[in-house]
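Internal tracking record. Fields below are filled automatically when a chain is submitted to the structure queue. Please do not edit lines marked as system-generated. If the sequence contains nonstandard residues, flag them in the REMARKS field before resubmitting.
Queue: standard
Priority: normal
Entity type: single polypeptide chain
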Amino acid sequence: MKILVCISNVPDTTTKVKFKDDHTSFDDSGVQWIINPWDELALTRALELKEDAGNSVNEICVIHVGTASADATLRKALAIGADKAIRIDACAADAYYVAGQIAEYLKENPFDIVFSGIESSDYNGSSVGAMIAEFMDYPGISSVTSVNLDDDDIQLSRAIPGGKQVLKTETPFVAVVQKGIASEPRIPSMRGIMMARKKPLEVKPSADIEILTKSVKFELPAEKGVCKMIESESAEQLVELLKNEAKVL
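SYSTEM-GENERATED OUTPUT FOLLOWS
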């Protein structure tokens, strides 16, 4: 059984976001790039499944749609434990384009399970995993918090309002995973880093996929106003500020 984990290359979550060219593009100067946190948890769970002698997972592959600037991030995924990495050489224009590129690779290189993080920490689109399932006509399960394999018995849990839902499915399928799929992301060991140098990182040409959307302009949120402190006994002053300044009453 083979698992494909979709990887996004995103700015470190502590990055101070800046834009250039009249706010039409992201300024990536000085930015440290990392594996998208939800994808990193997905990779961790995939590795746990492979290490479990109770199932037949024997290969973990990571895939990314992007330029050579993401190779260091893919090498980190290999150092964490993935067996190989695939980079589709294209600029990730929009979610439909990314999902289409991954689906074209899957048609030629089938996998039993596809993991995708529920969203990326940069654009928060939450749509690539579902689009892959639609392209491939695979079952797509969203908000997955656990995946357990026992030969052909595959059970997934997903978060729903007020509780959880337990599902059974068959391969192939796409699992869009979220927090809870693994407890902590893995940190590459020195041995893993050394082994990653010998693992394959294949670069594939892009397919002819239509781009449906284009980012026109970005805007930063408005700066927060000055915090006003009032005495705990000054209820009337609080009401006046909420009514006349905050205008929420």
